[in-house]
Amino acid sequence: MARNKSAKTMRVEVKAEPKTHSGSTRSGTVQPAKGKLGVMIPGMGAVATTFVAGIEAIRKGLAKPIGSLTQMGTVRLGKRTDGRSPKIKEFVPLAGLDDLVFTGWDIFEDNMYEAASHAGVLDQRLLDQLKPFLSSVTPRAAVFDHNYVKKIDGPNVKKGKTKMDLAEQLRDDIRDFKKTSGANRLVTMWCGSTESYIAATEAHQSVKSFEKALRDNDEMIAPSMVYAYASLMEGVPFANGAPNLTVDLPVMLELSRQNEAPICGKDFKTGQTLMKTILAPGFKARMLGLNGWFSTNILGNRDGEVLDDPGSFKTKEESKLSVLEHILQPELYPELYGDMYHKVRINYYPPRGDNKEGWDNIDIFGWLGYPMQIKVDFLCRDSILAAPIVLDLVLLMDLAKRSSQLRGLGIQEWLSFYFKSPMTVPGLYPEHDLFIQLMKLKNTLRHLKGEELITHLGLEYYD
């Protein structure tokens, strides 16, 4: 608890569970991935269309799922000498890519072929090969509030007297998609824009107060929260790819547990923050000090346009700034990190499109306090990095829903690996170190299958 001094002491009860043959605790059951998995996406922009087009390209044998842990990653089982490292998708029962079906909501009326062409992320020749499929995915009318996303507007918007009416319309959409697509199971992936910054209020503290706020058209109920409420009320897992509060609220945790609909978030970890969660753990591991870290970004896609608004940027800034403090723990290492200066800038630059550039100047110091510098210039493709994250979260959230042990937990902290600002239960600091996050994810999969957890102690090799 050292990293959150204001947090109250939590009482945790641990019940002893019977052991499996491998020494891990018995972990309940995981239902098989039978039938179709419906993927519902609020926000059919660059990330969503790159993801869906990519899935279809992979299904047609036109590309490989580069960047997807579930498709290309392995998990070591047992000792290093055992030689057991199956692919993750062969180790746990994940939905197959051929079983994915899609729908989405957007304020613009473009189908996914048109939206992908407009986004300009993927080569048009590839999109043309996928046109029949992509053209068939058309957006449902969206829940939208211009006060939360000030830089864009569109015609494809739901109308209702109250926000509860809008939530009921979304629930009708969810039921309709499940029926018409033939999906057995559903997952909602928020790929919409970053909303203006707000803090939680009394309206967000319980289901009762939230539903009253919906009926009263409370201005503190953001569109993303309406999607989350509708999904969780239908028992559908919800993952938040933006830094909005959305499901990081007491009401959503209550609903998630009540309806056994897993939640996770916030903010896909793609470019600059991904590099921070790789480099910062290395500095701390070697006890190298940090005087300052200056980060600036230029990007020209819809995300960049939205973040040009101060309110939306404030939400993103809160997400990006928290990373270093939690990894470096300045309260534990004041001589190394107590006076570090961390600044983040994001600039909208239309000519760059989706090809974001993240530039970092890092001032570190070493033995006897001697200063050094590191410069990082990451010319990345934002949606190319985000698309495999969306795929992994779709499959792993569906796995969590089918797990008797995970589905009732609410927050799926084991998926922190994918987020800039990982959600945790109140009072528990988030883990940002990418390598610890990966160990947590893989150990969760081992646990679900009754395999021994990997600690990397390794003393048994030298007995």
Task: Annotate the secondary structure layout.
Elements: E1 36-42, H1 46-59, H2 69-72, H3 88-91, E2 100-106, H4 112-119, H5 124-129, H6 131-135, E3 140-141, H7 163-181, E4 183-190, H8 207-215, H9 223-233, E5 238-240, H10 250-259, E6 263-264, H11 272-285, E7 289-299, H12 302-307, H13 310-328, H14 334-337, E8 341-348, E9 357-365, E10 371-379, H15 382-402, H16 434-448
Parallel strand pairs: 1-2, 1-4, 2-3, 4-5, 5-6, 7-8
Antiparallel strand pairs: 7-9, 9-10
Helix pairs in contact: 1-4, 1-15, 7-8, 7-9, 9-10, 11-13
Radius of gyration: 22 Å
Major β-sheet profile: 6 strands, parallel
Helix content: 25-40%
Strand order of the largest sheet: 3-2-1-4-5-6
The assigned structural class equals alpha/beta
CATH architecture of the largest domain: 3-Layer(aba) Sandwich
Average residue pLDDT:
91
**Number of E-type strands:** 10
Please count the helical segments.
Answer: 16
Shape: globular
What's the CATH C level of the largest domain? Alpha Beta
What is the name of the CATH topology of the largest domain? Rossmann fold
Give the CATH H-level superfamily of the largest domain.
NAD(P)-binding Rossmann-like Domain
Strand share of the residues?
Answer: 5-15%
